[in-house]
Amino acid sequence: MPNPYPSRARPWPTAGEAAPSRHLKFPHRAPPVSEGPAPVGGLRPLVVVPPLGPRRSTGGRRRLPALAAMRPPWCPLHTPSLASPLLLLLFLLGGGAEAEGPEDPELLVMVRGGRLRGLRLMAPRGPVSAFLGIPFAEPPVGPRRFLPPEPKRPWPGVLNATAFQSVCYQYVDTLYPGFEGTEMWNPNRELSEDCLYLNVWTPYPRPSSPTPVLVWIYGGGFYSGASSLDVYDGRFLTQAEGTVLVSMNYRVGAFGFLALPGSREAPGNVGLLDQRLALQWVQENVAAFGGDPASVTLFGESAGAASVGMHLLSPPSRGLFHRAVLQSGAPNGPWATVGVGEARRRATLLARLVGCPPGGAGGNDTELVACLRARPAQDLVDHEWRVLPQESVFRFSFVPVVDGDFLSDTPEALINAGDFHGLQLAGRLAAQGARVYAYIFEHRASTLSWPLWMGVPHGYEIEFIFGLPLEPSLNYTIEERTFAQRLMRYWANFARTGDPNDPRDPKAPQWPPYTAGAQQYVSLNLRPLEVRRGLRAQACAFWNRFLPKLLSATASEAPCTCSGPAHGEAAPRPRPGLPLPLLLLLFLLLSRLLRL
């Protein structure tokens, strides 16, 4: 039976072997390119809030910390930075592989595209069935680059869904080669534009009655990420809570979010459309795995959380899921979207940087896109960070565009109008009578490789929600294993009922709903659940005033009027604002003061 983890002989060491790092390490190189395998209702929201501790930081030299969900290429994405809280909003909308023969009916599934063969994986407390690398779209290569995804055509015979497939082409963080804190977020499979695959974990044997489904969307600033990362291993949560778990790849960077608004050749937001197509696939096929298509909970972190929020805001996505979890991100972040003018400026500048003719009023979009499609994928990756109007700690190059289609208006305007699946953010939700739950995540893992002074990093609640501490060889403490079980139960309870509290344990400390008056939230750490009030009200008031000024000083929202360099020329350097090192030093100092 193929090993789903080809970079190591077995997913976990056997008795007597040295315990590995909790995540894989990869060499200082971009992964090779692969051409991909051959086929063989009523809505109620919930809010949860993790930590305000340091988040992803660069950890050294002149690389000063920045808000991790909003950082330039020289600041590693999932490394801790000093000030931003892990914000999580939950909204309720109305071991090794064991060899199994194909005769095992639990590992053979019929979906609309054809037959699938999965494999049985061992979790510490028993087996799960895994179906890895299931194609849900035609490969978006060649003339399909920049276009919306097309559903996968049926395949003959039985397709082996026994190993993760390629990672979508993306920027690879090489700032600290070999350092676990950055490498754990880098691609662990080959890079390819043929990357639209999803994965399904389901209890073994298959549930006899429909089971709630959790669908994961990874973060990565809309320019990186992969569903195959070890930290997203779905076996532990599936085995512990008996849920079905699905994760998908989606296009990132220019491949997923380059936009020439008004053009059919590059309409933009195709990465979000990849996600939507995966959700449609879940609705059509998850019942074959024992999942309940009428009980689907969408959850994501950072840019994945922003993506979840955008599906809440986009009418065509409604009905594809029923509850949602936003971890450490929101659709109305200033880094999460751009307008049509700025989107076109960035696309045109990227074309110039790689030697393509201009488009738009002075050119031809069709010729421009044809030229971009002919360029090697790595050329686009190498130049995409040079399209930003100014080097900034709060901007990414290619992100969702407010196009009047997927997003009819800016997320902020839609939220203020209450136009997203009956939901609004925390305070508005509570004021309108919706159930809202809030938390702050405060536990720093004992295995964390980042320095102690960085506190609880952005993104490091994920390993507990996915249950990695249950694997003994990863060397978490017994208390952390218990903590992970508690978090998995909260998330699974929410997926089942829309309430994180466990109805089977009424004597356990209760997580109270958040209201605009009481503003109650809980702290999630190794100690018993503690209820608090007024989550950093002073700090929030300060940042509501200070952050816009910082954004204004470090990046300009005004479209650039320059035409960009000719092929072979250096990218123009925008007018500097305040010195960036000084701004970041001030940012760091004020962040630390606010945490006292």
From TrEMBL:
Location of the region described as Disordered in the Swiss-Prot/TrEMBL record: 1-37
GO CC, alphabetical: extracellular space; plasma membrane; synapse
InterPro entries: AB_hydrolase_fold (IPR029058), AChE-related_enzymes (IPR050654), CarbesteraseB (IPR002018), Carboxylesterase_B_AS (IPR019826), Carboxylesterase_B_CS (IPR019819), Cholinesterase (IPR000997)
Predominant cellular place of this UniProt entry's protein: membrane
Membrane topology of this protein: Peripheral membrane protein
Annotated localization: Cell membrane; Synapse
PROSITE patterns per UniProt: CARBOXYLESTERASE_B_1, CARBOXYLESTERASE_B_2
Coiled-coil segments on the chain, per record: none
Residues annotated as domain Carboxylesterase type B: 108-418, 424-543
Enzyme class: hydrolase
Listed GO biological process terms: acetylcholine catabolic process; choline metabolic process
Superkingdom, natural source: Eukaryota
Gene3D superfamilies tied to this protein: alpha/beta hydrolase (3.40.50.1820)
Enzyme Commission identifier(s): 3.1.1.-
Pfam families per UniProt: COesterase
UniProt keyword list: Cell membrane, Disulfide bond, Hydrolase, Membrane, Neurotransmitter degradation, Serine esterase, Signal, Synapse
GO molecular function annotation: acetylcholinesterase activity
Protein name per the record: Carboxylic ester hydrolase
Organism: Capra hircus (Goat)
